[in-house]
Amino acid sequence: MPILTSTIHRIDKPDTETPATLTCAEHAQSSAASLEALLTSVNDSFHAKPKAWGHFGETGSSAFAAGLSEYLAGSVDFVTWSARMAERINALIDDHLSVGGHLLFVHYQHGETQYVSVALLHHRQGFAIDNALEVTETPQLNLGQLMLAVRIDLAQWQGGNSQQYVSFIKDRGGKKFAEGFRELLGVEEGVDASGETRTLLKAFSDYVEREDLPDDASREKTDAVIDYASTQAKHGEKVTLDELSELIDEQHPKAFYDYIRHQDYGLSEEIPPDKRALNQFRRFTGRASGVSISFDSHLLGNSIEFDAEHDRLIIKKVPGPLKEQLKQRKE
């Protein structure tokens, strides 16, 4: 993960009542293995957080995007642009947070793609053992507490065909702060990652049911889908319908893709996977004595209950078509 350039600024805010103060770096960070290791850890934490995906608004409406464009065009250096953005972030923190931290700005390359990332790194008190084998207290970066972070896929942004090249943390515990950060970036949300993931999983469930696959094949394909999507989420990458379709059926790699398009689920070609939605999804399947049952795991305990003592499965919400068939049979 080569770092092309980076800089770190500091925001001090001792408490809620004291105004935040900004100390800007005068030069870029020197390239070092420790900096790359830090970026890797920050990215791991970032990918694990709930995020929103979107794109910059109209040209000129975002100082963040305008300044980034100037940097990429070579008319302003990275340190200058990052310092300007740090001033705006400092004001946002002053309004919404009681603590400061270090602002990490990084332009780096991962594979064939270049990204620009910004993250506010908070601190916590930790412990170390010195050369004399004595325990000492020392401040440490608390990477698990990321509240402000954004990543821009430069290739997708400059290509002009994507509506989801900006991903940023959407802290559900601080809605005003998250909204202020979105406005600072000038980003319009282009896709509901959670909703899209749930729709994709619903489409997969419908497809498996239509194909009437054996239990083993159904479980195998479900595990493959979840593993693929979870891996993409872990690395901050999107699920592509083409890749997923090929994964589901190697002999007929376009079958699932064509099914989605013909059924008009309204899914994007690329979907940022939502980890919470993925974790809730596992299918339970069973077939015996002329009875075939298949349902998503997240329904267990809600619309479906399992009574282990009496060996019963209780379905509270009967599917509409099945209900109509049962009514007709009764009549």
UniProtKB/TrEMBL annotation:
Molecular function as annotated in GO:
double-stranded DNA binding; single-stranded RNA binding
Annotated keywords: Cytoplasm
* The keyword Cytoplasm is annotated on this UniProt entry: yes
The family database entries (InterPro entries) matched by this protein are listed as: Nucleoid_associated_NdpA (IPR007358)
Name its cellular compartments.
Answer: Cytoplasm, Nucleoid
Q: Which Gene Ontology cellular-component terms appear in the entry?
A: bacterial nucleoid
**Broad class of where this protein is predominantly found:** cytoplasm
So what family is this one in? Answer: Belongs to the YejK family.
NCBIfam families cross-referenced by the UniProt entry: PRK00378.1 (NF001557)
Entry protein name? Nucleoid-associated protein YejK
List the source organism: Chromohalobacter moromii
